[in-house]
Amino acid sequence: MPLQPTLRRAHNPLGTRTHRAMPRMSRPTVGQSFDVEIRHELDGWSIRIPEIGGVTHARRRATVELAARECIAAITGIPIGYVSVFVAKETVGAE
Known about the structure:
Helices cover 14% and strands 31% of the residues. By secondary structure, the chain is α+β, with helices and mostly antiparallel strands.
């Protein structure tokens, strides 16, 4: 008796579910992550938040994320604990 080929998919070792990223929201929502651009200047760091048009300043690099989160919370009304920040662009000095 001849064997017939079967149409089978290869087994996925991670299971049948696939991870799909949520599309970025066009308006601020609770728990949203914001991309910020920072620039080193003589008196500290200038922080620009393009998604909401916000600008703020921090004295040290270690406080950039906190200053950005505080600014976002003040502008959008989202509690600071629900705001996350990602430094998308960092420049040093004048361009």
